[in-house]
């Protein structure tokens, strides 16, 4: 029997672990021949379908994710026209809800699996030609002349006994990052998350994790994204994991681990461990979603809001790691003014990255089941984005996504972050006003270079916050942009530094670097500040290598 896996991803850099996770469990089956056809949502579906047909498979298996759903259907609906008697089995997060409508709309799909596929799919493949036996396959959903059949949800009870995805010949080592799942399930009950009902949490041992990392590192991988929903649910295990990660700090130029952490569950022991971790090793995603306790309660999210903020503030105080926080526009009870206030509060903590997403009312979640009761209007098609709530009109939600784009362009850019943080914290209207300014310039829906962002911010501050012009100029100069353009401000070339300082009776307070006779010097002068920059004349590096403040 020949099985073809249709591997469609949202971009080339992404790689699904579904195929290697399942194939690893059955790689010893000599009677099953496996092959894969890969593509992205930007590829031509007809071309991919033609490639699928060339393999002449007996079975096509495909995993459906939020942003690949439509493309998978485009390809499968074409492939089935080119192949006689092919059977199609689908799985993935898209099938965690009621699957009857999907199967009725897509009769060329033989069946779908709800839940975890490592055990359910091999059982289906064993019984594919014996429909009378399908009733015993956990998680299988299909149509027959008798109607819709639903076998509940598939769960792998002994998660630790599974063979690792990296052991499959289909594991993709060529991508810029590798995904590592060491637990499955989540203690939390977030109504908007597909893992909100996955209990109990199932673990791999620390020994297993260590063994897997040794294999991953042997392939030269430096970027590892840990898929565990709440990394720090178990403090003892989390500390053990961090000890393992710390052992790779010096490996091949240092590795980086991405973790999801619940900020309200950071114990004193974990705080000490995080503070001692090697610099640059960790990138933490701290789940916030909202800073309103009623919104969190309506969304089913556990954890004290006060503890979450204290935990986040602690994480942001650590210079040895990066912290990412998120907010979700469209949650029940969450208004646009509340969202803007939460953005300002999170920015005030010094968080390194901030992401504002729109609520996705996903199949299989409690948010989907209670959407009518909460009067939530959402798209019936992927990605199931929220369209209207009692607290947010369609225009409010559209503005929230425009604000998200503004934050990504400016706050999440290291160059402009400090200035934009100061503006957000000092001017309660900045978020809305600056977003409207960007909208008027029609730059929110197109790529914008870092230099262009600086020009826009400088021009905005000229008319609205002249006291911040020097800050924008300093950021511009330190980024290495042209000193001939307006955001460089009133910058002057200093040919003879010593004579200039003596003549003007100026003293230097060094910010970074060391002054050298060979440097080229420039002074940025404003009403309240004089700042000296030195450039390396030999390397012609565009950014200054020396900076000092000048005072009388």
Characteristic terms for this protein:
552 residues, alpha/beta, Rossmann fold, pyruvate-formate lyase- activating enzyme, 4 domains, seven-stranded mixed β-sheet, six-stranded parallel β-sheet
- What structural category arises from helix and sheet content? alpha/beta
Distance between the termini: 84 Å
Question: Could you tell me the strand content as a percent range?
Answer: 15-25%
- Please name the CATH architecture of the largest domain: Alpha-Beta Horseshoe
Number of strands: 22
Question: Main beta sheet, described?
Answer: 7 strands, mixed
CATH-wise, what's the superfamily of the largest domain?
Answer: tm_1862 like domain
CATH class descriptor of the largest domain: Alpha Beta
In the predicted model, the low-confidence regions spanning at least 5 consecutive residues are: none
Please tell me the total number of domains.
Answer: 4
Radius of gyration: 27 Å
Described by the principal axes of the CA atoms, the overall outline is elongated
**Total number of helices:** 18
How much is the average pLDDT?
94
**CATH third-level topology of the largest domain:** pyruvate-formate lyase- activating enzyme
Query: What helical percentage do the residues reach?
Result: 25-40%
- Biggest β-sheet: strands ordered side by side in the sheet: 2-1-3-4-5-6-7
């Amino acid at each position: 029997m020949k099985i073809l896996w249709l591997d469609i991803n949202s971009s080339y850099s992404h790689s699904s672990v579904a195929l290697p996770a399942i194939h690893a469990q059955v790689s010893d089956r000599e009677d099953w021949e496996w092959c894969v056809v890969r593509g992205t949502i930007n590829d031509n579906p007809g071309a991919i379908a033609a490639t699928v047909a060339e393999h002449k498979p007996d079975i096509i298996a495909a995993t459906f994710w939020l942003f690949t759903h439509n493309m998978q259907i485009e390809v499968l609906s074409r492939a089935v026209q080119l192949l006689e008697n092919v059977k199609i089995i689908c799985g993935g997060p898209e099938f965690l809800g009621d699957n009857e409508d999907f199967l009725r709309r897509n009769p060329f799909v033989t069946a779908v699996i709800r839940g975890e596929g490592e055990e359910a799919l091999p059982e289906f493949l064993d019984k594919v030609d014996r429909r009378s036996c399908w009733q015993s396959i956990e998680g299988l959903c299909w149509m027959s002349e008798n109607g819709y059949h639903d076998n509940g949800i598939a769960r792998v009870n002994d998660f630790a006994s599974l063979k690792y995805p990296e052991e499959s010949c289909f594991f993709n080592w060529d991508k810029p990052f590798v995904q590592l799942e060491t637990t499955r399930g989540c203690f939390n009950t977030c109504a908007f998350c597909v893992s909100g009902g996955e209990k109990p949490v199932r673990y791999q041992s620390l020994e297993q994790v260590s063994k897997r990392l040794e294999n991953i590192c042997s392939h030269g991988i430096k970027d590892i994204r840990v898929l565990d929903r709440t990394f720090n649910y178990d403090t003892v295990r989390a500390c053990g994991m961090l000890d393992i990660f710390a052992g790779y700090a010096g490996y091949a130029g240092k590795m980086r681990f991405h973790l999801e952490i619940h900020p309200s569950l950071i114990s004193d022991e974990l705080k000490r461990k995080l503070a001692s971790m090697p610099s640059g090793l960790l990138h933490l995603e701290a789940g916030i979603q909202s800073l309103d306790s009623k919104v969190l309660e309506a969304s089913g999210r556990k954890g004290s809001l006060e503890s979450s903020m204290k935990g986040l503030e602690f994480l942001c105080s650590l210079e040895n790691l990066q912290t990412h926080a998120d907010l979700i526009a469209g949650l029940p009870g969450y208004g646009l003014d509340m969202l803007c206030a939460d953005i300002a509060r999170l920015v005030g903590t010094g968080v390194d990255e901030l992401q504002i997403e729109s609520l996705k009312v996903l199949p299989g979640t409690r948010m989907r089941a209670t959407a009518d009761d909460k009067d939530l209007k959402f798209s019936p098609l992927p990605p199931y984005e929220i369209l209207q709530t009692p607290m947010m009109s369609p225009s409010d939600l559209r503005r929230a996504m425009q604000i998200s784009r503004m934050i990504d362009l400016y706050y999440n850019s290291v160059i402009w972050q400090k200035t934009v943080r100061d503006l957000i914290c000092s001017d309660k209207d900045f978020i809305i006003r600056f977003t409207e300014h960007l909208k008027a310039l029609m730059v929110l829906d197109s790529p914008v270079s870092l230099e262009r962002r600086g020009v826009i911010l400088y021009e905005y501050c000229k008319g609205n916050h002249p006291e911040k012009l020097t800050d924008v100029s300093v950021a511009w100069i330190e980024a290495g942009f042209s000193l001939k353009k307006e955001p460089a401000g009133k910058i002057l070339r200093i040919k003879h530094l010593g004579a200039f300082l003596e003549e003007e009776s100026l003293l230097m307070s060094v910010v970074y670097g060391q002054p050298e006779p060979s440097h080229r010097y420039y002074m940025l002068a404003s009403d309240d500040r004089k700042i000296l920059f030195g450039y390396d004349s030999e390397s012609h590096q565009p950014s200054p290598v020396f900076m000092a403040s000048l005072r009388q």
